[in-house]
Amino acid sequence: MNGISGEKCDTAWLVSDMPYERKKELKEIFLGTKEASSNSENPQYPYGDSFVRFGGEDLDAFTDRIYDAVREIARETILIVTHGMAMRRFLKAVSYQQDGTGFIGNCGIVQFQYEEDTFEVRKIINPAGTAQNINILGKFCGKREVDPHYVSK
Question: In terms of CB atoms within 10 Å, which of 33, 126, 134, 135 comes out highest?
């Protein structure tokens, strides 16, 4: 398995016994000097180029980075663990139309197929931030159950 970013290594460890490789290209959007700021200081989503003036990343550049990274590793990867916004931007890049699953949050699962340079979203499971999602993904990857108290909500 490859395609892990930063603290998402904890999630990868919980759901799979496979070795993994970190991919910095899958990290969350870079906010520049606003990096440690409260979410209440962020502009309303979609951010566009709001963070560029703080040395941060433009939303379209972020989307391109995520899409390119997923496309590169999808040829051989069965599991990618990344941030919620990164996945939302990836879904936008592949023109996925929202089907009532809502805002994909932490611990959301997106199953997709990649063939002939085309992504097809097969399923989205989105009970944000729950041990249930990690357990669902863990069963898919053959890993043990996770204590629900381990996962913060």
Answer: 134
